[in-house]
Amino acid sequence: xxxxxxxxxxxxxxxxxxxxxxxxxxxxxxxxxxxxxxxxxxxxxxxxxxxxxxxxxxxxxxxxxxxxxxxxxxxxxxxxxxxxxxxxxxxxxxxxxxxxxxxxxxxxxxxxxxxxxxxxxxxxxxxxxxxxxxxxxxxxxxxxxxxxxxxxxxxxxxxxxxxxxxxxxxxxxxxxxxxxxxxxxxxxxxxxxxxxxxxxxxxxxxxxxxxxxxxxxxxxxxxxxxxxxxxxxxxxxxxxxxxxxxxxxxxxxxxxxxxxxxxxxxxxxxxxxxxxxxxxxxxxxxxxxxxxxxxxxxxxxxxxxxxxxxxxxxxxxxxxxxxxxxxxxxxxxxxx
Length: 336
What we know:
Blueprint: E1 6-11, E2 14-17, E3 27-30, E4 36-40, E5 45-49, E6 52-57, E7 59-62, E8 66-74, E9 79-87, E10 95-97, E11 100-101, E12 104-105, E13 112-117, E14 120-126, E15 129-131, E16 138-143, E17 156-161, H1 171-174, E18 180-182, H2 213-222, E19 234-235, E20 239-240, H3 242-251, H4 261-264, E21 269-271, E22 281-284, E23 293-299, E24 302-305, E25 314-317, H5 321-324, E26 327-332
Antiparallel strand pairs: 1-2, 1-5, 3-4, 3-17, 5-6, 6-8, 7-8, 8-9, 9-10, 9-11, 11-12, 13-14, 14-16, 15-18, 16-17, 19-20, 21-26, 22-23, 22-26, 23-24, 24-25
Helix pairs in contact: 2-3
């Protein structure tokens, strides 16, 4: 039996069942494949599960300006935020105040990554990609890597979804729109009368220009947490495979890589494990054709990767046995 049993909306009139496929939630729970399990709208909310609470908040509201939540608790109290505000567009004015993790105050800067245990993490004010229709920054995004948080492995809690403040997509267009859209895309909410998205008009997030090349690469890659794995995928609209993700990220920085892991292993300076730096590519699973899997090192013994069919772009640990014993080597695509 799954640990997560059901979610119920707590309102002044009592506990109301929540439609499992509701769209436009201010907060959402999604499974490891990105499928929507439940969505929370305006008012107070609590999720009930074995052994504690996955998500609770005292109040939530939406307007044309954005979405607001107060008294937000995640993972049975491990994460708490006094207040979250996410604008409908962009990060200007976005804020998470009174954020604590395990009782420790956290500086809530955009794209802050907070480890929560083996394979689990929290991202603050993430400029990223989210499952579902529409786009916008996520106030808090919690990803469960195992069952220690009381969630099924791979589950995500998305709290403070800016797209909840935007006008809903007309029903006859919804079925024809892509189910994963990059945050920061312009024109996604416009009713153009087209049967599909005008991909040529998409504007993705700005490429960072400060910091080392490796740190810029990591910041770009982190935008794509949650994008589904697609074999031969190499962009955030259709999805990524492992080499497609690294190729796409480095292409944004003017560094061209081959869309093949066995080739990328030779496209840079070899780096020993003791000298790994953010942005280095780490390779796994040796074969006669070279390594068969890769990711991008982000620091602290962790790397970001597009693992396999049925999974999504996520953060993993080099110390996990499957990666520790399958490690082949590392390469720095941007030189020394």
